[in-house]
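For the sake of clarity, the format in which proteins appear in this thesis is described at this point. The record quoted next illustrates the convention:

___
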Amino acid sequence: MEEKVELEELDKTLLKKTETKPVGKYVRIFQPCIAELVGTTFFVFIGCVSVIENVESTGRLQPALVHGLAVAVLVACMAEISGSHFNPPFTIAIYLCGGIPMPMVVPYLISQLIGGVLGAAMSKVMTSHENYVNATGASFNILQSDDQLGKAVFAEIAMTCLITMVVLLGAVNGKSKSPMVPFLVGCTVIINILAGGDISGTCLNPARAFGPALMTNYWTYHWVYWVGPITGSVVAAALVRLLLGDEKMRVILN
């Protein structure tokens, strides 16, 4: 009889230990937004500094490596908190593929844009005034005439489509999810910058463009870095939803 009572008490103790505590509002809503703000801040900060301090060089290797490695590190650290978007087009594409609830989309976008401004401001504080001015605060100033627009817009669409597909297939699509997503996304950033840096500057991220533009009041052809990346991300979401996703992700051909 005593053994039965002891077993019942043991079962109750184990049950209490295994009961999961409901996820609080802070963890569900506020913490992910803070992670997006902090992650975007440091990504834009490090990226801008690499461009500003590389102003005397004609090469793209340093900015490419810095942006790619920064993305890889931040994604690896914060993926379990917010999903590590740090980029408005990623958030839009992930929402279209069912990876984030709609009420979180606007808070994520706002957090990312604020992070972009804070990161650009931090880069201005850290770098010399001369280098900052010479690099236009790491704004995307490569486009100087209408003749370049078509190629630049296409470049932003195509390159953002590529990296967004990597994100969707590596982190959202059930069949192809991979623990190597941070490495894959970082490598994709590097190869995109190396390939297309001289054509459009390889923005891929409106938050990365918005922060420096606001800090320097440089808005020449700024719209390219919104239209191109957002269009590219929607194309990537369509490809995954229609053709590349698993049976749960695809909306046709099941």
